[in-house]
User: Fold this.
Amino acid sequence: MDEHAKTVTWIATLRRARHQTRLRLGLVMVGLLLIGTGLTLITGPTMTAPMDVLRVLTGHDLPGTSFVVLELRLPRAILSILTGMSFGLGGVIFQTLLKNPLASPDIIGISAGASAAAVFAIVMLGWSGAAVSVTAVIAGLAVALLIYLLAWRDGVSGARLILIGIGISAMLDSMIAYVLSRAPAWTLQDAMRWLTGSVNGATLDQAVPVLLSLLVFGGILLARRGNIEAMRLGDDTAAALGVPLMREKVVAVMSAVGLIAVATAVAGPIAFVAFLSGPMAKRIAGPGRSPLIAAALVGALLVLLGDYAGQHLLIGRYPVGIVTGALGAPYLIFLIIRSNRNERET
Amino acid sequence: MTHLTAKAIRAGYGPRLILDDLDLAVPPGAITAIVGANACGKSTLLRCLARLLRPATGQVVLDGRSVQDIPTRELARNLGLLPQAPTAPDGITVADLVSHGRHPHQGMLSRWNKADDLAVAAALDVTQTADLAARDVDALSGGQRQRVWIAMALAQETDILLLDEPTTFLDIAHQVEVLDLLVDLNRRRGTTIVMVLHDLNLAARYADHLVALLRGKVHAVGAPDKVLTETMVAQVFGVRCRVMTDPTSGKPMMLPLGRHRLTPQIPLQEKTS
Assistant:
């Protein structure tokens, strides 16, 4: 065999090995999601036998059990998975495009923008349903645009954009707190959702817009995986490889904002899921290609298991955002310490 | 497609004009080196040729078509560019990085196929990086890394390759290695090469065609022994020098004259060898 043929085989082997590793990891994560869903379906104040859950899911009607499983627990699991995937995918897109793990939409104020708009629409305007989702998406885009414009000075530097985003995020959070303080007392329970995010009281109707946004925006993003991958090499190299930069960036960012905003409109800004999923997925899947699908699966796992822990494992019941927030905050501090150190070293 | 020309381009960043009414015809199938003082517009010219920067007026024409009218992907199948200091995402392997060169050849739906494997393998072989394929790009030496980036541009299989200072940050051995590699490419595949180089002597030795820029215009252009003269160096770089024939290549080479450390009686005739 000559040198060239040997190299061809070697390249193909490497590529196949990577595909298989990825596929295996994906299957493991899907398996974990199924386990998490199973746990959510059987656990409650009264435990349901796994066999009963299966019978209910296959269409049998068991009085009491059917209601608990199909109306309470199943929507909760589905909404957890869908919002988690939206946050995970939206987050990793931002982190990939801005080449900084801190550039996640929940840190730089895009989630806060969607959240503030949703709170305003619900509490002040009395809106609900799709109107709230649309408002949240528009507000998310508007905040993204505002941060971008404020960060513009002969081009946009990632660090400036992140700092401005953190400032905007703080302003929006105080706006949310203000609107909530004017809300009638009986909505306060519900209002918790807008501070940390929660899947309490999930219904299948709520899951529909999230599913649609995942199909549309997630589809757009996955179809562009090659371009997003090439953009990690830097603007000049990506352009030289034939990526129409302006168009691709706008499409990718708008899709990511769409994912984040719709999920936020339904479940609130579930703390740090967008921020954590990308780096965790990278750790699991290994560096190399940007882990879009892995990040979506990690996001789903975080919300599903975080909610399970908040409901059943901790003393008292907490919305999922409190659990994910407790996981995310130390990581945020770790990242900031590390980035400071790196700056000092260079 | 190999006929690349710049016609009366003016270009710059914001209101600052860097290229001023510049004309240039890149000779097909040859190696062209662009030289000039700092901030004379070398990189700007390369960016215009690669369509990374749109000229304010004038146009860059590839085989009779303005590059602005060529779809991005199609352009990327004909013209490759290696930027000055490209950055690899952390943890990416050599094989993955080089595979990126196939990007313009893949549609949104078309899958990776045999031709892609062949092109990547050929690029690795030519640059002698095949045995590094599974390694992390971060872990390579400067010279290896530059060869890997060139391999990526080669996997793109373009007829024209633009390189912005491909030898910066490399020691002399690696500089020569990279330039030799570019000559190999030019000879074996007939690739048209345009590169910005800082080192005048290496430029004169390795290029068939030398372009000297001065304040955003082409000051001198042609074969190295016509372009690299004492007068040109004085005008373009503002430094006195001696130009003589390099005994190892027969090409011109220059020695700069500063104010110090010169022997009082330098022979004034040009050819001392």
